Backbone:
């Protein structure tokens, strides 16, 4: 019996699998999964009754996997541009952390998630950073993601250096985990804000949780972090995490800028995934992640947009393009990283860094139907000479026509379909003023907190 399906057609289907491109091609969706990938003529002949989306000029890619970000920064974009990371954490993140609540978390996730969907992201690996006070905060993230139709690998970036109790922090982990377990699109990971941001007691509790659910941690983002941990322990943060057993479970390490050869060997030996965040690394003057070296060692490197306050947009296409350009500038070498490399990092390699490659990251039968359709009828994509370069160097969110998540469109005709964008923007304004005023961030910007 032939099941009713959907055909998404395009002049180019970039699979991130084998073959890497089909032209002209199509993807057949049945329910939440990909049923077939092949030429347009063949799939249309076999399934003449299927509903058709896309057109003969479109480019189709797997959904983009944003491997690192912070929805907790969704209301504080465009503030404090003059700080490097260490100063920025003290000036922006520390003061705002005690003032989040569940409603703020929901709106922050909505604001960032809308931008993510518009730039082709179908999965966001997030670390929400806050100091829980009374009620759980992070379930608001899951609620927003479910409403948006956006996948999440969600974590809570726990830190007790600002005074939160270990008990309260573990309760927040539990609240987020339970929310994710009741979600169709989200799953939980253990968040560790920073090795130096956790007491020995909290890190031991984090290790126990990470052994079961995996972990998401910042590592080697700036030189100061490496120096501080090495001075205290005699090891680099990566070596210390390996020594303490964090890497015994699946681990995603964000940034990995200041890594030496030994650090890279440890990451490779322990199959630690890396989230490369080129835009925030440039804005915060953190340095350049040695992506080509990491990938040569077999380390899976994905791309992240990072937080809305450290990027400051949530534009995945910008991050993909800059992932290539920063390597070329740093090495003064045009072959340092290619468009094909970057697209793989944004799709299948990002999935591998999270251990999700059997479900996501490429257009293959049996995988989840997460894909992006680029409009080939715009001036930007009207003339395609190399489809990989067209996506990586030319396309912007303006060319993102459709985004499919689990076989359903979350973006149609370039617009998010599940929420009222103007309403969310309006709801965000008083909350942003409230947060800025409570944290006294007005001194860092021209924004009034009245």
Residues:
């Amino acid at each position: 019996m032939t099941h009713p399906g959907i055909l998404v057609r395009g002049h180019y289907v970039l699979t991130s699998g084998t073959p890497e491109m089909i032209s002209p091609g199509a993807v057949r969706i049945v329910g939440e999964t990909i049923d077939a990938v092949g030429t347009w003529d063949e799939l249309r002949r076999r399934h003449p009754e299927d509903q058709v989306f896309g057109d003969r000029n479109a480019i189709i890619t797997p959904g983009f996997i944003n491997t690192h970000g912070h929805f907790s920064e969704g209301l504080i974009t465009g503030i404090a541009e003059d700080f490097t990371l260490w100063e920025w954490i003290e000036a922006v993140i520390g003061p705002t952390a005690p003032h989040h609540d569940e409603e703020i978390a929901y709106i922050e996730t909505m604001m960032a998630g809308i931008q993510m969907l518009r730039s082709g992201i179908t999965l966001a690996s997030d670390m929400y950073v806050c100091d829980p006070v009374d009620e759980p905060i992070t379930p608001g993230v899951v609620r927003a993601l479910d409403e948006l139709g956006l996948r999440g690998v969600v974590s809570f970036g726990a830190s007790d250096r600002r005074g939160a109790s270990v008990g309260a922090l573990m309760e927040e982990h539990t609240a987020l985990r339970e929310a994710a377990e009741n979600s169709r699109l989200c799953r939980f990971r253990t968040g560790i804000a920073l090795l130096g941001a956790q007491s020995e007691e909290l890190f031991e509790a984090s290790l126990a949780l990470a052994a079961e659910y995996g972990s998401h941690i910042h590592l080697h983002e700036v030189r100061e972090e490496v120096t501080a941990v090495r001075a205290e322990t005699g090891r680099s943060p990566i070596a210390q995490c390996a020594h303490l057993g964090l890497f015994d479970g699946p681990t995603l390490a964000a940034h990995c800028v200041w890594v030496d050869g030994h650090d890279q060997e440890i990451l490779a030996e322990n199959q630690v995934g890396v989230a490369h965040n080129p835009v925030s690394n440039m804005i915060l003057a953190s340095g350049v992640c040695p992506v080509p070296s990491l990938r040569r060692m077999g380390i899976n490197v994905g791309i992240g947009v990072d937080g809305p306050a450290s990027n400051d947009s949530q534009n995945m296409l910008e991050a993909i393009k800059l992932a290539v350009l920063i390597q070329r500038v740093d090495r003064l070498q045009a072959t340092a990283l290619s468009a094909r490399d970057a697209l793989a990092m944004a799709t299948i390699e990002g999935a591998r860094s999270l251990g999700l490659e059997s479900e996501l990251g490429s257009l293959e039968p049996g995988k989840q139907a997460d894909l992006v359709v680029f409009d080939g009828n715009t001036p930007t994509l009207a003339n395609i000479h190399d489809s990989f370069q067209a996506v990586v160097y030319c396309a912007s969110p303006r060319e993102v026509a459709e985004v499919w998540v689990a076989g359903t469109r979350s973006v149609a005709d370039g617009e998010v379909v599940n929420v009222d964008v103007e309403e969310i923007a309006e709801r965000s304004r008083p909350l942003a003023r409230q947060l800025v005023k409570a944290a006294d961030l007005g001194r860092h910007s021209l924004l009034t907190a009245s």
